[in-house]
């Protein structure tokens, strides 16, 4: 599974979110990888799940990849909930 972490420029909050996602992946023992990217690149990048903030989530929704908004990029609980919701929908 590939999880795309998206922010405006691809190296600020997306990197923080990527680190949080990696902690959750390791804790849950998932076979997954996280990648940080900017919003312009995100729509053309192949992934299974996109995690981002509310603003970018509304811009990325409607494509073939599910999008989940995360309010606190450093919250392992919030990220885990978003990943669990995605996994439960599969």
From TrEMBL:
<dbReference type="InterPro" id="IPR003501">
    <property type="entry name" value="PTS_EIIB_2/3"/>
</dbReference>
<dbReference type="Pfam" id="PF02302">
    <property type="entry name" value="PTS_IIB"/>
</dbReference>
<dbReference type="InterPro" id="IPR013011">
    <property type="entry name" value="PTS_EIIB_2"/>
</dbReference>
<dbReference type="InterPro" id="IPR036095">
    <property type="entry name" value="PTS_EIIB-like_sf"/>
</dbReference>
<dbReference type="GO" id="GO:0009401">
    <property type="term" value="P:phosphoenolpyruvate-dependent sugar phosphotransferase system"/>
</dbReference>
<keyword id="KW-0808">Transferase</keyword>
<dbReference type="GO" id="GO:0008982">
    <property type="term" value="F:protein-N(PI)-phosphohistidine-sugar phosphotransferase activity"/>
</dbReference>
<feature type="domain" description="PTS EIIB type-2">
    <location>
        <begin position="1"/>
        <end position="90"/>
    </location>
</feature>
<protein>
    <submittedName>
        <fullName>PTS system, ascorbate-specific IIB component</fullName>
    </submittedName>
</protein>
